[in-house]
Amino acid sequence: LLTYQVQRLCYDKYGFEVTVGIYASNSSDSRIMEMKDQIGGMIQDRHQEIGFHGLFVDFDTKYISFDIVVDFKYDSEQIRSEILMQVQEMYPGYAIDINIDTKYTSKTMWN
Q1: Is the dihedral of CA 89, 91, 94, 96 positive or negative?
Q2: How many CB atoms lie within 10 A of CB 43?
Q3: Stretch 72-91: mean pLDDT, rounded?
């Protein structure tokens, strides 16, 4: 709901459309920082061109979610499936959601 409200405000007030991502974060927990390093390291070892962010972990419900950033020229669903299997092996018993953010350019708006 908050994401939609921010997007709507930008359109109504300024006349442009924007995509907004708002993430829950629990990165102050050392266990989560270790998981971030492990998952991020695995992704970089196997898929150097893939970005990773937005990690959220709920230990009580055994839930992990994060985003991967995949260049549009790659098969993002195949990469997502490979990463999902690898994370399931690392953290058996956890429900895992991986969202795909598509990368359309290698340039930033400041280049």
Answers
A1: negative
A2: 20
A3: 92
3-state helix vs strand vs coil in the chain, percent to 5: 40, 25, 35
Exposure string of 53-73, with b = 16+ CB inside 10 Å and e = fewer, is ebbbbeeeeeebbbbbbbeee
Confidence class for position 104, pLDDT limits 50, 70, 90: low
Give pLDDT, residue 1. Answer: 65
State CA 8 to chain mean position distance: 23
Is the pTM higher than 0.85? The answer reads no
Phi-psi region of 100 (alpha: psi -120 to 50; beta: other; left: phi over 0): beta
Q: Which residue has the tokens 């390291």?
A: 41
Q: Residue 83, class by beta-carbon neighbours within 10 Å (0-12 exposed, 13-18 middle, 19+ buried)?
A: buried
Residue 3 has pLDDT above 80, yes or no: no
Q: How many residues does the chain have?
A: 111
